């Protein structure tokens, strides 16, 4: 039988859950609103993620309209792709160091918000890539948690 480790969920883990709620709302409210607005302006209907050339021609969309729609859709899609692997790591790392991981998660939320709302190709949007610094810190915390678990030093 393998050794077992007891993990106590610290009270500070509530901050991790609060950031999780912020991430959820950002993705499923803020970024979805951008896509809905872009669909309404262009006439591109779901389930199309990206309009085909014949659809663009039929709707008589300008290159600028297509670019605006694509940007809104890509923000939403890119964030969904990121969150599919980020959220489990975030929640696990939060068990090890909840306050610091929650703070790093809040930084991720902030910079992803900037990414989502900054104009395409703007300097502000380029700065949004700094979310990776906080993301790597969270990954480090998850690795540290794994190390402590493997050495029987769980909190």
Automatic annotation (TrEMBL):
Pfam families in alphabetical order: MAPEG (PF01124)
Domain of life: Eukaryota
Molecular functions per Gene Ontology: glutathione peroxidase activity; glutathione transferase activity
Keyword Cytoplasm: no
Cellular component GO terms held in the UniProt record: endoplasmic reticulum; membrane; nuclear envelope
Ranges that cross the membrane: 13-36, 101-118, 130-150
Localization annotation: Membrane
Membrane among keywords: yes
UniProt keywords, alphabetically: Membrane, Transmembrane, Transmembrane helix
Membrane topology: Multi-pass membrane protein
Record's protein name: Membrane-associated proteins in eicosanoid and glutathione metabolism
Organism encoding this protein: Rhizoclosmatium globosum
């Amino acid at each position: 039988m393998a050794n077992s480790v007891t993990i106590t969920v610290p009270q500070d883990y509530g901050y991790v859950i609060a950031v999780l709620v912020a991430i959820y709302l950002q993705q499923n409210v803020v970024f979805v609103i951008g896509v809905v607005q872009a669909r309404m302006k262009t006439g591109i209907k779901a389930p199309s993620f990206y309009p085909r050339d014949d659809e663009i021609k039929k709707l008589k969309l300008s290159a600028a309209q297509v670019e605006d729609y694509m940007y809104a859709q890509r923000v939403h899609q890119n964030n969904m792709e990121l969150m599919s692997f980020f959220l489990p790591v975030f929640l696990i790392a939060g068990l090890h160091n909840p306050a610091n991981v929650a703070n790093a998660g809040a930084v991720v939320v902030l910079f992803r918000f900037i990414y989502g709302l900054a104009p395409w190709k703007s300097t502000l949007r380029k700065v949004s890539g700094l979310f990776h610094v906080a993301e790597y810190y969270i990954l480090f915390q998850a690795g540290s948690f794994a190390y402590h678990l493997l050495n029987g030093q769980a909190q």
